[in-house]
Design goal:
By secondary structure, the protein is α+β, with helices and mostly antiparallel strands. 35% of the residues lie in helices and 38% in strands.
Length: 130
């Protein structure tokens, strides 16, 4: 069984941490084309009893995008992550239960969320602000 402390220790040792508040760790994923993506790895507790890890990344401002086209693109190209609105931002996120979690079940979704958010940010928002 993985715990939040196991995941947090792994993230801290393997990624470039830019902010760490204990239950939320922000990391920077850098790409060869000089683009980058900030990823939030957060501890979530479901129903006050089950520990989960959530991987999330902002891709842009809601006001700057056609949500229909953005959601269509996600539906056609992504097998991981859902899009949500948090405040003024479009955020991609994926959650995993920590009970019986193997590290590869965390790594692949983390990379897919980062890559998808970066792709959407470049395609729909025309920049690299997140």
């Amino acid at each position: 069984m993985a715990t939040w402390n196991d995941i947090a220790a792994f993230v801290r040792s393997e990624y470039r941490v830019i902010e760490d508040t204990g239950d939320e760790i922000r990391i920077l994923i850098e790409y060869e084309d000089d683009r980058s993506q900030v990823i939030m790895v957060c501890r979530e507790v479901l129903d006050k009893q089950e520990d989960w890890v959530q991987v999330a990344s902002v891709c842009g401002l809601v006001a700057d995008v056609d949500l229909h086209l953005l959601l269509k693109e996600i539906g056609e190209t992504s097998v991981v992550c859902g899009a949500v609105i948090m405040g003024e931002h479009v955020v991609l996120r994926h959650s995993l239960p920590l009970l019986n979690l193997d590290i590869n079940e965390f790594l692949d979704p983390l990379q897919l969320v980062a890559d998808t958010a970066d792709h959407l940010e470049e395609t729909f928002f025309g920049g690299d602000g997140y």
